[in-house]
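With this grant's support, the team has encoded backbone shapes as discrete tokens. A representative record is reproduced below.
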Amino acid sequence: MVEAFITREMIGWAMERVHETPISIARKLNVKPEKIAQWQSGDTRPSIRQAQELAKKLRIPFGYLYLKTPREEKLPLPDLRSVTGTISPSPDFLDVLYDAFRKQQWYHDYLEQDNASPIPFIGRFNLNDDTKTIAVDISKTLNISNYMRQECNSWEQFLTEFIRRAERARVLVLRSGIVGSNTHRQLNVQEFRGFAISDDLAPLVFINGRDYKTAQIFTLAHELAHLWIGQSGISNPDYMLRSKEQRHRIDQVCDSIAAEVLIPSVDFLLRWDDSYELDDNLDRIARKYRVSTFVVLRRAYEFGKIQRELFVLKYGELLGRVTRKKTDDGGDYYKLVLSRNSRTFTSALVVATGEGRVLPKEAAALLNIRVSKLRAIENSVLASEFMHV
């Protein structure tokens, strides 16, 4: 047996990074836990084949196991996350982030080859501009109006329509709670809620589908605000805090813009009636603007209509009524593929494949599906576009 002279320090680091234990990783490698302990202590070494399998299970390049110290994993986007205790990005998050970059870069190149014009609203404003002015511009650009709200039967439908209008404006909107198409690798909402890639040809926003769906409306508006001020970033705003209390200046601005897009402040103050019970105000305004009561509750707290204690109590009560979005674990497979990859991106890729500009194998890899599923995805895209003509 040819031994692999891997370092014990890297085994421990890699297991901690993916939250594995000697027992759990031993089970995956079909060896005894004592064997893993011996590798960690340096008493014995695995074979080359065992070390390769170990690296695979720990989701790191094989060569990493030979290093003395871990390599610093630098993120390609500004890290604006406000969750304390986040030391380094998880492998699941990194895989999702780099997968989104691959899609965004492909779409950028695709548009560049077609001589597409830059999108005018990307970076149209900056951090010092009035947030209400920016919110009005977002609503005007995407045609988020009272008429559009009334056309939606619920806040769930409003979210779907909001995403569709962002995509029509050429923003790729990816919404997923898993890595690729692997339902066993679920994303952690405590790590991030979303991120935005600001690009004047192919901007992209990603929404963590494991978050409460009621919060995803706000996250979408928040990430779109990133694009309007031309600021890429990874976000995890604390929705228990007011906009001005967010950790980063960019998150403070984007949070304020998002709230204004969803419920304009002038309208909110006119419609809030202090003589009404809290639940009556929440339900009435939520129905009017087709948002969840969670969004209205935050707006009320923002304007001092309720105190911190009541806000926290009601926030917990609302969360107790809902569950996290589960559609990544089941449902219509083809709709899930479109949601995870962006309808706009998927449609462009289908067209490029049909024109011979992209090989089917490459297209399938970009969509994280098998080649045999491409034709069905093409039919699903065509059906979807026909419905929205």
Notes: The chain has 18 helices and six strands. The longest strand covers residues 172-176. The mean pLDDT is 88. The domain at 8-66 is CATH 1.10.260.40 (434 Repressor (Amino-terminal Domain)).
